[in-house]
Amino acid sequence: MTPLLEVKNLHAEIDGKKILNGLDLVVNKGEVHAIMGPNGAGKSTLSYVLAGRDGYEVTEGDVLLNGESMLEMEPSERACKGVFLAFQYPMEIPGVATMTFLRAALNAQRKTRGEPELSSPDAIRKVKDVAGQLGINMDMLKRPVNVGFSGGEKKRAETMQMALLEPKLCLLDETDSGLDIDALKVVSEGVNRLRSPERGFVVITHYQRLLDHIVPDIVHVMSAGKIVRTGGKELAHELEASGYAQYQQEAA
User: Which SUPFAM superfamilies does this one have (predicted)?
Assistant: First the structure.
């Protein structure tokens, strides 16, 4: 079976500084992988490289989505192929209503896939349905994207985007950052609702608490730009107790 995501010997740098150092990762459909590690390990860089963010140069290796190399694809093309990145700090877009943004994103994706665009009423019904499932107030959809939103509202809005776009590969970059326990539960419930045999997740986090709610199938420890240990969900509890010092020493 072809893996959903295959990262082979990935080396990457930004502004001449090497950050990823021969990283290997395989994510199959239906799997949730957690990537943990200390600050500076390269966790967020990995998510940015997978999503195609500008400024990150891949110097060696390859990234395959369903067997197809993504490295030459623009970020928009990767998104239409089914890659979704949930940011640690979602951006504000003043002047663009959230509903307008969501409708445009949905139709851009559908157009690229050769599907008919949704009419405004159909798009609004679809957004309202998903918003209701996630407990998102409709007033939020009239406000500019993320402008004046609390940390929890921003993450809920991003979870709603993910649910609407139905990606194949969901990358969550420290999505628990700045969330209180109630917001964390709401976001986690939204993510768990999206788990399916056809979809894979890469969940990047410092802390085990997120993994109490989004229970991973596989946990990886990342240090100095590569994965240095892989285990089951119990590895996250071990890291919570012992920290990352031994892995930083090994990487050094």
Answer: P-loop containing nucleoside triphosphate hydrolases
